[in-house]
Amino acid sequence: MAPMRYVVIMAGGSGTRLWPLSRQGTPKQLLHLIGGKSLLRIAFERAMELVPADRVLVVTGAAYLDDVRADLPEVAPENLLGEPMGRDSLNAVAWPAAVLAERDPDAVIAQLTADQLIEPVSAFVAAIDEAYRIAEARPEALVTLGVVPTTAHTGYGYLQRGDELEGFPGACVVREFREKPDAETAAAYVASGDFWWNAGMFVFRAATFLDQVRQLEPEVHEGVLGLAAAPETLGEVFGTLKKISVDYAVFEPVSRGHGSARVVAVPLPIAWKDVGGYASLVEVLDADAEGNVVNGLGVTMNTSDSLVMNTVEGHVVTVLGGEGLVVVHTPDATLVTTLEHAEQVKALVGRVSETAGPTFV
Amino acid sequence: MAPMRYVVIMAGGSGTRLWPLSRQGTPKQLLHLIGGKSLLRIAFERAMELVPADRVLVVTGAAYLDDVRADLPEVAPENLLGEPMGRDSLNAVAWPAAVLAERDPDAVIAQLTADQLIEPVSAFVAAIDEAYRIAEARPEALVTLGVVPTTAHTGYGYLQRGDELEGFPGACVVREFREKPDAETAAAYVASGDFWWNAGMFVFRAATFLDQVRQLEPEVHEGVLGLAAAPETLGEVFGTLKKISVDYAVFEPVSRGHGSARVVAVPLPIAWKDVGGYASLVEVLDADAEGNVVNGLGVTMNTSDSLVMNTVEGHVVTVLGGEGLVVVHTPDATLVTTLEHAEQVKALVGRVSETAGPTFV
Question: Domains plus CATH for chain B?
Answer without folding.
Answer: 5-274 (3.90.550.10), 278-360 (no CATH)
